[in-house]
Amino acid sequence: LAKGMGKGGWQRYQSDLAHAMVQRLELRTQLHEAIEDEQFVLQFQPIVELADQRVTGVEALVRWQHPARGLLSPFHFVEAAEENGTIIGIGGWVMREALRQFAAWKAEDPDTSLRYISVNVSPRQFRAPDFVEQVRSALASAGARPEWLLLEVTESLVLKDAAKVVQDLRALRALGVRVAIDDFGTGYSSLSYLRQMPVDVLKLDKSFIDDILTSRQQHALVDAIVTLAGNLDLAVVAEGIEEPGQRIALDTMGCQYGQGYHFAKPLWPVDIPALVAAARPAALSA
Ligand code: C2E
Ligand code: MG
Ligand code: MG
Ligand code: MG
Question: Which positions fall inside the EAL domain (predicted)?
Answer without folding.
Answer: 24-280
